[in-house]
Amino acid sequence: MSYNVALNFEDGVTRFINCNGFESVVDAAYRQGINIPMDCREGACATCKCRVESGDYSLGDYIEDALSQDEADSGYALACQMRPTSDCVVLIPTESQACGTKQESFVTRIKQVRALSGSTFALELQAESLKSLEFLPGQYANIHVPGEAHHHRAYSFSSMTAKGDTVTFLIRNVPGGLMSGFLSDRAEPGGEIEMKGPFGSFYLRPIARPILMLAGGTGLAPFLAMLDKIVAAGGSPHPIHLIYGVNTDRDIVESERLDGFTRAIRNFTFDICVVDVNSDHPNKGYVTHHIKPAQLCEGDVDIYLCGPPPMVEAVSAYLRDNNVSAASFHFEKFTPSIA
Ligand code: FES
After folding, report:
1. Burial code of 153-176, b = ≥16 C-beta within 10 A, e = fewer?
2. What phi and psi values does residue 166 have, to the nearest 5 degrees?
3. Mutation probe of ligand 1 site: the residue of 35, 39, 92, 99 with most atoms within 8 A of C-beta
4. CB 193 within 8 A of CB 218
């Protein structure tokens, strides 16, 4: 039996390794060219201490000085002793370069660019090498802007198909933006684009309680990948509610896909809201206007938030000012760059 282990490094790089059930995470990583810092390799020095964010595993042999009971109970483990018994996500508290690894790079071709609305593109990239790409739902890639040396943009994967040769992104059409200009004027099917990834700590954790997802604009993208993953996993044991806020009616995209998720995930619901006072949409105002007490489950909720910085900061301030508690709070800001 072998398991997929995502190693998340301190600099946001994620690498996946295969662990065969008999070998430790350190040994499996080493076999695949990743040198997790270690010293004794016997569970005594704690050099390899890591935190296991999800998955099942045995802790192996170690001494209390290296790993206390409290640490073990909180999800810490020693990578030289830990043996996964399921797929796992493991946080390695060091930079990827220090482990002799880095993000993967892919040379892809444009399969399709579609204007989903006046303000949003859907970009689909294709490459045989993408069949080996793995990422956690919610993570992002850096995409090089063709013809613009040293310029890249970070975009969240907006779908999650198993071992496919394509990846998709939602890209905001920023007036004067380098990527927007490329997609509007020069992008052709078959054109080459380099992509690096995956990156990021904004990804779906194990679903242990109700989830509230808050999306602003193209901050919807990581949630689409998360929902794909939940569909593939056979649904959610807990309710999931998404509130998707946009500025104007024309900014609404992927609503049919969201409808599809309500059919595919029994306890998934969503609301869309529009800031523009002249909107025809029944829900007006900001995302925070549409959070209902029942969705906060008296604090027994995991909240995920993704959008442009002002939206993320406003929602965070709202939650703080209203003493909203949550079992966990994960957020990601994206910045639409021009230069
Ligand atoms: Fe010493 Fe793992 S390397 S405890």
Report:
1. bbbbbbbbeeeebbbbbbbbbeee
2. -130, 155
3. 39
4. no
Ligand 1 pocket residue status of 46, Cβ below 6 Å: yes
- Tell me if 78 CB under 6 Å of ligand 1: yes
Ligand 1: which atom is nearest the Cα of residue 78?
Answer: 2
Tell me the pLDDT tens digit for each residue of 301-328.
Answer: 999 999 999 999 999 999 999 999 999 9
Treating both helix axes as pointing N-terminal to C-terminal, what angle do 255-264 and 221-232 enclose, rounded to 10 degrees?
20
In whole angstroms, how far apart are CA 44 and each of 25, 41, 48, 58, 79? Answer: 16, 8, 10, 16, 12
Residue with the two structure tokens 């927007």: 180
- CB-based contact 7:64 (threshold 8 Å): no
> What confidence tens digit (pLDDT) does each residue in 227-283 have?
999 999 999 999 999 999 999 999 999 999 999 999 999 999 999 999 999 999 999
- The whole model's pTM is what? 0.88
| Residue 47 Cα to ligand 1 middle (Å) | 5
Q: Pocket of ligand 1, candidates 36, 63, 78: which has the most ligand atoms within 8 Å of its Cβ, to mutate? A: 78
Q: Could you give the domains of the chain? A: 2-99 (3.10.20.30), 104-199 (2.40.30.10), 211-333 (3.40.50.80)
Given a contact cutoff of 8 angstroms between Cβ atoms, the answer to whether 136 and 14 are in contact is: yes
Residue 164, C-beta contacts closer than 8 angstroms, at least 6 positions apart: 130, 131
